[in-house]
Structure formats: structure tokens, C-alpha cells
Amino acid sequence: MPPKSGKKAAPLPYPQGKAGATKKGAKNPLIERRPRNFGIGQDVQPKRNLSRFVKWPEYVRLQRQKKILNLRLKVPPAIAQFQNTLDRNTAAQTFKLLNKYRPETKAEKKERLHAEATAVAEGKKKEDVSKKPYNVKYGLNHVVGLVENKKASLVLIAHDVDPIELVVFLPALCRKMGVPYAIVKGKARLGTVVHKKTAAVLALTEVRSEDKTEFSKLLSTIKEGYTDKYEESRRHWGGGIMGSKAVARMEKKRKAAEAAVRV
């Protein structure tokens, strides 16, 4: 067998591309490439969700932390019942009735006192010119007194009173005295009825004769849709709801334990 020659074949004058490769199109000399520089003081960065980078005001942080703590921690039944509020339609009917019994404003009171004084000066009785007032009662101490004396016909309690200790005893007191009650959203809405910023509780003692039918229907609706509905749930603890990450970890552990048992 003849010996192999040590000479190698000369390389090609240009690199050979892969089979099936296409030539790149010629670049347009009029189009200039301008790569962006995202350094400090250079090009504007693309938009992104910055909610986790925002330094929120203290009141926003506090209310968010409070909400999370209320979900995570176990809440006693006496406090947990304040999350069970009157449904939207019944609440609308209730406030529609309450707005008919709003207390008089300062101007109306001044006008009434002037009419009474004029009547007394003319030798008449002041009852002749001013009819018996039918008003919503407000103020925590006042309403508690009405409930204790069984004079209140309906009590409405705000669900977001802070501190909650102010009204936490009121549902039990109303049940003890046999007074119909409901927990509604919220203290600002109750406050608008009595010309205040907020109100913890409101109470109706009596209504006009033309509203008695509507009031009795409202009481039966509250009894069926609120009192009876949440009778059992008010004995249970609230809270104890974990976040999505904790739930996922627990689910992963549970599946691992089940897999180990099968093996």
C-alpha cells in the first residue's frame, strides 16, 4: 500500500455557509441603528408596574395591614358577627325610611322656636303650632338607654366602629331586651341621616301612622333576611384565612404526605 502524502487540500477562499441558508438582505445605508442606553440620566425606561416600589402613606399601610390581620388571626364570635351586614336591598329600604325621620336642622329648629314663641305671646299653646316630632335617635348612650327601657323599635349598628369595644355589647343587649337590630355599612352612611360625619348607632322609637305598614314589613324582612340568617354564624369564630402562598405550601405538604403513604 503506497504511503499517504502529507499535503492537505487548500482551503476555500471564502467560508462556505450551511446548506439551505439564505443570504442576508443588503442593509439600507439611510437607516441608522440607534441602540438605547438605559443608564442614569439616559433613555427613559419602559413602563412597568411600580406598585410594590411605592412608599404608600401611613394611613394606607395601616388600613391594609389591619385588613390582612383581620383575615389571618382568629376573631372571637362577638367581633366576627360585625362582618355579617344587612343585604343591599334591605339596607336601601331601611335608609329610605330613615330619611323621612331625619332630625331638624339648625334653621328648621330656629323657625320652630320662633313659631312657638309667637304662639305663646298671642296666648296660644305651643303644641298648637308645632306637631309632635318623630325623629331618629342617635348617640350611643342615648340609644343604649332606649334599648334598656325597651323603647327602641329598631336599632341600626355600624359595622366599622373604631374602637369596636364601643358597640360590641350592643347586639347581645338588643337580643336580651327583645329589640330588633341589624348591622349595616357603615358609620359614615348612618352619620348622613343625622347631619353628622359619622354615627355609631341609630334607633327608631315610633313612626307616623302612614308609615306603620311599611315599618312592619321592614321589621319582618330584617328578621327573615338578617336575624334568622346569621343566628348560627354569630356563634362561630372568624378569621383564620391564610394567604395564597401559605395555602399552596400546605397543599404541597399534603400531597407529599399522601404520596409517601402510597409508597
Descriptive tags:
263 residues; four-stranded mixed beta sheet; two-stranded antiparallel sheet; 9 helices; 7% strand; elongated; RNA binding; ribosomal protein; ribonucleoprotein; 60S ribosomal protein L8
Molecular structure report:
Helix 3 (88-98) runs antiparallel to helix 8 (212-227). Strands 2-5-3-4 form a 4-stranded mixed beta sheet. Strands 1-6 form a two-stranded antiparallel ribbon. The protein has 263 residues and is an alpha+beta fold. It has 9 helices and 6 strands. Component of the ribosome. GO terms for molecular function: RNA binding.
Write a brief caption for the model.
Residues 123-214 form the Ribosomal protein eL8/eL30/eS12/Gadd45 domain. The chain has 263 residues and is an alpha+beta fold.
User: First CA to last CA: what distance?
Assistant: 67 Å
Strand order of the largest sheet: 2-5-3-4
CATH C-level class of one domain: Alpha Beta
CATH architecture classification name of one domain: 2-Layer Sandwich
Return the CATH topology of one domain.
Answer: 60s Ribosomal Protein L30, Chain: A
Rg from Cα: 37 Å
Residue runs with pLDDT of under 50 for 5 or more positions: none
Overall pLDDT confidence: 87
Topology (SSEs and partners):
Layout lengths: L57 H15 L1 E2 L1 H4 L7 H11 L7 H16 L15 E2 L1 H9 L5 E5 L11 H8 L3 E4 L2 H7 L7 E4 L7 H16 L10 E2 L4 H19 L1
Parallel strand pairs: 3-4
Antiparallel strand pairs: 1-6, 2-5, 3-5
GO biological process, one term: ribosome biogenesis
Function: Component of the ribosome.
Family: Belongs to the eukaryotic ribosomal protein eL8 family.
